[in-house]
Amino acid sequence: MARDVSYITTPIYYVNDKPHIGHAYTTTVCDVYARFMRFAGRDVFFLTGTDEHGVRIEKVASAQGITPQQLADDNAAEFQRVLPLLGSTNDDFIRTTEPRHTRQVQNLVQKLVDAGVVYLGEFEGWYDEGQEEYIPQNKAKELGYKSPVNHKPLVRAKESNYYFRLSAFQEKLEKLFDEQQDFVRPQARRNEVLGRLREGLADVPISRTNFTWGVPMPNDPKHVIYVWIDALMNYVTALGLGEPDSDAFAQRGKYWPPDYHVIGKEILWFHAVIWPAILMALDVPLPRCIYAHSFWIREGQKMSKSLGNFIDLPTIQKYVDAYGLDAWRYYMATQGPLGATDADFSDKHFHDIYTTDLVNTVGNCASRVAAMIGKYFDGAVPAETDGGSPRRIADHDWPAICQRTVAESRAAMDKLDLSGSIGAAVGLVRKIDAFINLTEPYKLAKDESRRDELGAILYQCCEALRIASLLLWAVMPERMEQLWTSMNQSIDPRAGKLQALTSWGGLQSGASIQKLALFPRMEKPSV
Ligand code: ME8
Q1: pLDDT in tens, 72-110
Q2: For residues 275 and 244, is the Cβ–Cβ distance under 8 A?
Q3: Taking CB atoms and a 6 Å cutoff, what residues make up the pocket around ligand 1?
Q4: Are 364 and 372 within 8 A, CB to CB?
Q5: Cα 114 vs. chain centroid, distance in angstroms?
Q6: Which atom of ligand 1 is nearest to the CA of 270?
Q7: How far apart are CA 61 and CA 67, in angstroms?
Q8: Phi and psi (nearest 5°) for 222?
Q9: DSSP 241
Q10: What local confidence, expressed as pLDDT, does residue 390 receive?
Q11: CA spacing 20 to 30 A to 171: which of 142, 297, 314, 451?
Q12: How far is the CA of 231 from the centre of ligand 1 (A)?
């Protein structure tokens, strides 16, 4: 059912690390969706933030000789500084050390205690210190008692902990996966989670006593709430769901539940199993979809700090400086790993996509159309109509072609199929190019008796280009706004009028058009 509000979230990023392509990617995916949906008239809330608690942060801070709060403050500021550089239009930035968050986490955990789904128990098991995660006995054996992530030995740990009664949600979760086939996407990730779910669920410890950097357990402060529980709750605390009397809830409560929690595949279990169980226990509606993307790899190799091949912020900056922010966003959104397989980032691929799609297609079409209108009509958009209705030239029903493209682009974006949505718009630009090649306006221009036809062709090209540019705005806002300026179009995407603006005929004949170089041709990869 169509909703007039939308909520989309990134994972909240750990402050033990500096921003890199992984963070930039997830943020850009959410941003493109948020911008598109706002333009389409939805009231959107886009959330990102930082995950600041846990033993990992405590350790990194102590190694640097600073307090965990200092480390969190410095790195959260860095994440916040980077967001505008990526063109992010997030509506809030939540930090898990903020009182608004910690207060609500305590309220929510207390509710879980009151509901009988959190209890105090004793536990002994194999613990991965790097991931702060217990590994089940059979899995630990399979892994040779080593961390699957950093390959350090697992340690035998014993704790008196608060437990979340995850086992009580086995049936409900299976039913959820069954009834809501799209709850986890893509399909391959859903199948993996479902497979593991069917192996059976054990209760999970949700408190720790071996360190202090976290939210204290309500009424038992020697226990600190496990960082993952604290972190997952950011999605509801930002909207005030843990304080129903708050202003935050009055203003933002309407945004729940989210359309998408966009995450990386490595954190799917927490989001697809533990989080819905917590929400069920709290009697809060579930998200529409947990979308677990795959990873960027680089030149065919996994990115890692030890290989020194991580695409870090200075590298991202180099691409942005050389090709422009919009080209960076375009590459992220259309070539990224939203599907079930990893995506390879390479200099050459980046350059090729920039050249093929942006220089040779979008940029070239815009300058070609503007140049012809400049040359044959003194830069004023010619008239299309022939006795009141659009002319049909070379069997092209442009209003229908554009309408179909808009519907396709919109439907794909709704499914978070960014490359499908953007690809539909770029496909429209390709159709314009093909139409020019077919009708050869430069030849018609020599025949004065066919001037009306020439005018109609160029009107149709320009109008279809305007419609394509509206669909491309979410991914490439700066350049599309430049294009609108060159077409004398005053468009405010915040007004949410995408549908009305994309109806055929929005471009007035007589409007003056200027030629511009939207995407300058670049020599070989310059990064
Ligand atoms: O996991 N390619 O935080 P984090 C694509 N705090 N995306 C990547 C990537 C890559 N090579 N590497 C990382 C956390 N990512 C937790 C989340 S949410 C309640 C708590 C992305 O700083 C990916 O989206 O490690 C992943 O989920 C996120 O960066 C990890 O961020």
Answers
A1: 999 999 999 999 999 999 999 999 999 999 999 999 999
A2: no
A3: 11-14, 17, 22-23, 25-26, 51, 231-232, 234, 263-264, 267, 295-296, 303
A4: no
A5: 36
A6: 19
A7: 6
A8: -75, -15
A9: T
A10: 76
A11: 142
A12: 13
Ligand 1 atom with the smallest distance to the CA of 337 is: 5
Confidence of residue 230 (pLDDT cuts 50, 70, 90): very high
Other CB atoms within 10 A of residue 283 CB: 8
Tell me the CA–centroid distance for residue 264 and ligand 1, in Å.
5
Ligand 1, pocket-test mutation among 261, 263, 265, most atoms within 8 A of CB = 263
Closest ligand 1 atom, CA of 234?
19
Would you say residue 165 has pLDDT above 50?
A: yes
One DSSP character per residue, 496-508 reads: --HHHHTSTT-SP
Q: What is the DSSP letter of 186?
A: S
Q: Tokens at residue 229, please?
A: 């529980």
Token code pair at residue 332: 């992220």
Does residue 459 contact residue 436 with C-beta atoms inside 8 Å?
no
Domains of the chain, residue spans = 347-501
Q: Which residues contact 84 (CB under 8 A, 6 or more apart)?
A: none
Token pair of 489 as six digits: 């179009």
**Single-letter amino acid, residue 120:** L
Rounded CA separation 66/476 (Å): 40
Cα 293 to ligand 1 centroid, rounded to whole Å:
10
Give the span between the Cα atoms of 340 and 498, in whole angstroms: 31
Q: Is 142 exposed, middle or buried (0-12, 13-18, 19+ CB in 10 A)?
A: exposed
Give me 474's structure tokens: 């979410």
pTM attached to this predicted model:
0.94
Residue 27 CA, ligand 1 centroid: distance in Å = 10
Distance 89 CA to ligand 1 centre (A): 19
Please give the distance of CA 367 from its chain centroid, rounded to a whole number: 31
Cis ω before 520 (30° cut-off from 0) = no
d(CA 423, CA 430): 10
Which DSSP state fits 253?
Answer: G
- CA distances to 13, 15, 25, 488, 513 from 20, rounded to whole Å, are 10, 12, 9, 38, 40
What is the spatial distance between Cα 96 and Cα 221, in angstroms, rounded to a whole number? 17
SS3 track for 322-390: HHCHHHHHHHHHHHCCCCCCCEEECHHHHHHHHHHHHHHHHHHHHHHHHHHHHHHHCCECCCCEECCEE
Ligand 1, atom 21: closest residue by C-alpha: 22
Pick the CATH number of 347-501 from 3.55.40.20, 3.90.1150.10, 1.20.1090.10, 1.10.730.10: 1.10.730.10
Residue 392 has what pLDDT? 87
